[in-house]
Design brief:
- The structure is a single chain.
- Helices cover 67% and strands 9% of the residues.
- It is mainly α and 138 residues long.
- It has one domain: Non-ribosomal Peptide Synthetase Peptidyl Carrier Protein, Chain A (Orthogonal Bundle), CATH 1.10.1200.120.
- The strands form two sheets. The chain has a two-stranded antiparallel ribbon with strand order 1-4. A two-stranded antiparallel ribbon has the order 2-3.
């Protein structure tokens, strides 16, 4: 078996394709959650905290250096802990959403497994079936 045919067999397996679809959907889902956090959750939290914008929260390690002409020669070195807090909230919301989705999927699978087994036939039906089978065997 040649290299290309082995690669084609590998790439076309169902698991690889499912994984690729999952990665693409996960990336899009991540963008939705990031937008939810940045555009909905964080402005509300900032408003509650007195107008704080978390993306602006930073500790200045080295201030910007200005030239004689007033232009910035070297940018400030910042420890952007606000962006880190925002990323942690993104992660928490994504983890919560995935947890809830898995919980729903597990509940649906349990319902399928718990489906009642068909009831046993009544005694008269069993007796009639035995009589029929005995007559056929003659």
């Amino acid at each position: 078996m040649g290299f290309m045919s082995e690669f084609k067999e590998f790439a076309m397996r169902g698991n690889v394709i499912d994984l690729a679809v999952g990665v693409v959907i996960g990336g899009a889902f991540g963008k939705i959650i990031t937008s939810l956090v940045n555009d909905v959750v964080m402005p509300v939290i900032g408003k509650i905290l007195g107008g704080v914008n978390f993306t602006d929260l930073a500790l200045v390690l080295t201030p910007a250096q200005m030239g004689a002409d007033g232009k910035e020669v070297a940018a400030a070195v910042l420890l952007r802990y606000g962006a880190f807090i925002q990323s942690m909230i993104d992660f928490a919301l994504i983890a919560l959403a995935i947890f809830m989705a898995i919980k729903v999927i597990n509940r649906l699978q349990r319902k399928k497994e718990e489906a009642p087994a068909p009831a046993a036939p009544a005694e008269d039906i069993v007796l009639l079936t035995e009589i029929r089978d005995a007559l056929r065997s003659r």
